[in-house]
Structures are given as structure tokens and as C-alpha cells.
TrEMBL record:
It comes from Candidatus Methanoplasma termitum. One of its GO terms (cellular component) is cytosol. This is Bifunctional protein FolD. The keyword Ribonucleoprotein does not apply. Keywords: Amino-acid biosynthesis, Histidine biosynthesis, Hydrolase, Methionine biosynthesis, Multifunctional enzyme, NADP, One-carbon metabolism, Oxidoreductase, Purine biosynthesis. PROSITE patterns: THF_DHG_CYH_1 (PS00766), THF_DHG_CYH_2 (PS00767). It catalyses: (6R)-5,10-methenyltetrahydrofolate + H2O = (6R)-10-formyltetrahydrofolate + H(+); (6R)-5,10-methylene-5,6,7,8-tetrahydrofolate + NADP(+) = (6R)-5,10-methenyltetrahydrofolate + NADPH. Pathway: One-carbon metabolism; tetrahydrofolate interconversion. Belongs to the tetrahydrofolate dehydrogenase/cyclohydrolase family.
Length: 294
């Protein structure tokens, strides 16, 4: 029977360390501040934005939510970004994606001051991560790495197979695991929708990190015994037995794969809580840097 790696347990240990750092900052007169800009009324984005605000409050951080209408012009959004870049009470901010189609997401991301880019989407921060000199790490892959480290998974010299090559999860995950140092030093293979004979590669993984958005894609025959499995996927599928008629599942067929894995993350309850946790960690780190350079 495999051991579960739970996001709640890992994130709580990080939050308790963050609380100490936040108190230290406050005692020097700095309250870490996070702003989230939401354009439009995408229901999933609204939920995430509310969760971020709530977590800031719980931690005693300063939190600002900027809600802009769906028909906001690109120029007005860029103006808001520029204001937040200058606002000394805000140490980190993000513009919730996706944006309405009339706004160029790249232009908006490029306008964020890299020092406040707590999502780590700005090309400067992506480049710094790649060369192993990060100011921030992107929240979801950083959360995955923390789950590995804090549950005692040795990554050194291990074969990490990342399934998916998105800019948000797969590619930064690859870049992080291949770096020198603790929680990394891995041999990394990335597979995607054009990969030939994908199962022959996933079966070689010591650590399998899956982020493709395809329900129950990885099955027991695609992994080797003893593998550590991190399932980033979140997919809502029909479930007539649940009151809502749907349920959340990962990209990994949990019931089958858990019998072969040494450690595995469930969905829900796995990677989910880690993204907001690492966003908070990035905001605290940004406030600490701003405090030093004051
Ligand atoms: N905090 C969290 O829990 C969290 C955070 C972020 C994302 N997620 C979830 O993680 C999943 C992935 O998110 P994402 O943003 O990385 O997705 P994405 O941008 O849609 O990228 C999906 C990746 O999976 C690959 N892929 C799709 N179908 C495949 C197949 N049949 N075989 C092999 N590769 C395949 C795609 O390959 P190509 O590049 O070749 O098209 C692409 O690289 C989603 O379920 C998302 O909801 C969860």
C-alpha cells in the first residue's frame, strides 16, 4: 500500500514557517501585501481570487482584490499594472488568467515589475529560474517540489518523467528538477502529446509528475513498482452517484496506480492546496527583499 502525500499536511508546515517570517517583517514595520487583479466574471477565477484573499487574511497579510469589468480595455489594465508596480504596500501581484480575448496576455505579463511577479510568469523570472538563479519559482511546480522534499523523497540522480509541457507546469517543472541542489539533481524526461510510445517512458520513471488535464490517463500498466506519483491534473467528470452529478479526478487512475506506487498524491487533496501556499511564500519573499533594499 502506498503512502499518501497530502497537500494539506505539506502546506500547513510551510504556512507555520511563513507565519514566523510574516511576524518578523511586521515587527520591522512591513506587512507583506498581495494584490490580485481579476478581469471579468469567470466563475473558477472568482473562486481562486476569493481563496487567495482569504488565505492572506488568515496569515495577517495585506490583501487587495482589484475587480475590473469584462470589457476593460488593454490600456486600462496596463495602467492598473503600472499603478501596482509603484504601490509600496503591494510586494507581489498577479493578473488572474485567462484574460478576455481582446487583451494580449503576454503584453500584460511583460508589464509586471519582475520583482513583484509572484506568479513567476515574466520572461525575466522564467530565465532566472532556468539558469538556476531564481527570485521566484512558479507556484504549482514549486508546490510539487516541496511535496517531494517534505515527504522525504530523494530526487538526486532519480529519473523524473514529467508528462505535459505547458509553460505553467510541465516546462518549469522540468527546469526546476534538473537544477543542481537539494530537491532536484534529477535526470529529467518530458513527454507530451507528440511523444512516441509514451508508456515505455513513463514506465522508466522513479518519480512521475503528471500535468495534462486528461482524466485517469495514467494507468497502472504505465508505471513501475515503487514509483512516486505526483498528479497535478484536475478534471471534473460525470458521477451519477454523487449529489452534484460530477466529481474531481486527476490525470492518474488513482485506484490502480496506488497499488504500485510507493507514494502518491490523491485528487482532490494532493497538489491543489500547494499553489496558493507557494504564492503566499513568494509574496513573503518579495516583501523580505523589499525590506532589505529599503
Ligand atoms: N494547483 C493545481 O492543482 C493546478 C495548477 C495548474 C494546473 N492544474 C491542472 O493540471 C492539468 C494540466 O494543466 P496545464 O495548465 O499544464 O495544461 P495545458 O496547458 O492544457 O497543457 C497540457 C499539456 O499536456 C499535454 N497533453 C495533452 N494531452 C496529452 C496526451 N494525450 N498525451 C501526452 N501529453 C498530453 C499537452 O501536450 P502538447 O503540448 O503536445 O499539446 C500539453 O503539454 C490540468 O488538469 C489543470 O487543471 C492544476
Amino acid at each position: 500500500m502506498s503512502e499518501l502525500i497530502l497537500g494539506k499536511t505539506v502546506s500547513e508546515s510551510i504556512y507555520s514557517e511563513l507565519r514566523v517570517r510574516i511576524e518578523a517583517l511586521k515587527s520591522k514595520g512591513t506587512t507583506p501585501g498581495l494584490a490580485v487583479v481579476l478581469v471579468g466574471t469567470d466563475p473558477a477565477s472568482e473562486v481562486y481570487v476569493r481563496m487567495k484573499g482569504k488565505k492572506c487574511e488568515e496569515l495577517g497579510m495585506h490583501s487587495v482584490t482589484v475587480v475590473m469589468p469584462e470589457n476593460t480595455s488593454e490600456a486600462d489594465l496596463l495602467k492598473k499594472v503600472s499603478e501596482l508596480n509603484k504601490d509600496s504596500s503591494i510586494h507581489g501581484f498577479l493578473v488572474q488568467l485567462p484574460l478576455p480575448s481582446h487583451i494580449d496576455e503576454k503584453k500584460v505579463i511583460n508589464a509586471i515589475d519582475p520583482k513583484k511577479d509572484v506568479d513567476c510568469f515574466h520572461p525575466v523570472n522564467v530565465g532566472k529560474m532556468l539558469i538556476g538563479e531564481p527570485d521566484f519559482l512558479p507556484a504549482t511546480p514549486a508546490g510539487v517540489q516541496q511535496m517531494l522534499v517534505r515527504s522525504g523523497v530523494d530526487t538526486k540522480g532519480k529519473h523524473v518523467v514529467v508528462v505535459g509541457r505547458s509553460n505553467i507546469v510541465g516546462k518549469p517543472m522540468m527546469a526546476m528538477m534538473v537544477q543542481k541542489g537539494d530537491g532536484a539533481d534529477s535526470t529529467v524526461t518530458v513527454v507530451h502529446s507528440r511523444t512516441k510510445d509514451l508508456p515505455s517512458i513513463t514506465r522508466q520513471a522513479d518519480i512521475l509528475i503528471v500535468a495534462i488535464g486528461k482524466a485517469n490517463f495514467i494507468t497502472a500498466d504505465m508505471v513501475k513498482k515503487g514509483v512516486v506519483v505526483i498528479d497535478v491534473g484536475t478534471n471534473r467528470i460525470e458521477d451519477p452517484s454523487s449529489p452534484k452529478g460530477t466529481k474531481l479526478v486527476g490525470d492518474v487512475e488513482f485506484e490502480g496506480v496506488k497499488n504500485k506506487a510507493s507514494k502518491i498524491t490523491p485528487v482532490p487533496g494532493g497538489v491543489g492546496p500547494m499553489t496558493i501556499c507557494m504564492l503566499m511564500a513568494n509574496t513573503v519573499a518579495a516583501a523580505e527583499k523589499a525590506n532589505v533594499s529599503r
